Amino acid sequence: MSPITHFLASWSLTDALRLRARDLALATWCGVLPDADGLGVLADGVNWLLGRASSWYYVQYHHALLHNIFAAVAIPLVLSIFAANRLRMFILGLVAVHLHFLCDVVGSRGPRADDFWPLPYLAPFSKHGTIQWPGQWPLNAWPNIVFTVLLIFYVFFRSIRSGYSPVGVFSRGADRAFVRAVQNRWRAFTREKPGREA
User: Fold this and answer.
1) How would you classify residue 195: left for phi > 0, otherwise alpha for psi between -120 and 50, otherwise beta?
2) How many angstroms separate the CA atoms of 142 and 148, rounded?
3) Which pairs with CB-CB distance under 8 Å and at least 24 residues apart come from 127-134?
4) What DSSP element (H or E) covers 119?
5) I need a labelling partner for 91 at 20 to 30 A (CA). Which of 80, 112, 119, 186 fits?
6) How far apart are CA 198 and CA 105, in angstroms?
7) 145 with 137: CB under 8 angstroms?
């Protein structure tokens, strides 16, 4: 799935478990950071733009370096150092990483019918234990789109009800501005409904 979907899914998971502020942000990043092994796409793109020899860093390393049991433990372990409640953040970070893995196994196939993205779960310790689902749907399949839209609805719902959003992972000031805009639009919308008195 896309990094945006992973971000929204991780934030929604940790929000549903009522983590707050810094720990919520850290646990959210646990569910996104496995895709850092896909940054080779930038080097591939630069090489192509500059007319250099083609490189395949994205294909070679994505789902290979950080989509395994080692990363599933290492990412939350490192980020939990900065948490208010380290043990709880580590456990939820571990869950967030595995949610990322589950989403990838279910919905990260390439455009061709045989373009599966297996998950080398026991790497680098063993070549066995690779997880692959034969029903894996393409990255741009409708279930991924519906899942992302539902997560966006959840974000708006939580923004209206709780007064914070995933924008807070990046900036508290931007989060306040976003939430204020969403809440104001919601108030205006509910006041303008036909048949409702002002």
Assistant:
1) left
2) 10
3) 131/101, 131/105, 132/105, 133/105, 133/106
4) strand 119-120
5) 119
6) 50
7) no
Compute the chain's Rg from CA coordinates: 19
Angstrom distances, CA of residue 144 to CA of 4, 108, 137: 11, 9, 8
Q: How far apart, in whole angstroms, are the C-alpha atoms of residue 75 and residue 160?
A: 31
Six-digit token string for 187: 């108030």
**C-alpha distances out from residue 81 to 109, 129, 166, 176, Å:** 34, 29, 21, 27
Give dist(CA 104, CA 10) in Å, integer.
13
In this prediction the pTM is 0.85
Give yes or no for a contact between 165 and 181, defined as CB atoms under 8 angstroms apart.
no
List the pLDDT tens digit at each of the 198 positions of the chain. 889 999 999 999 999 888 778 999 999 999 999 998 877 777 778 778 878 887 766 767 677 788 999 999 999 999 999 999 999 999 999 999 999 999 999 998 888 888 888 899 998 788 888 999 999 999 899 999 999 999 999 999 999 999 999 999 999 999 999 999 999 999 988 886 555 544
Of 57, 14, 23, the residue nearest 38 (C-alpha): 57
- Going from the C-alpha of 150 to that of each of 41, 86, 182, the distances in angstroms are 28, 30, 17
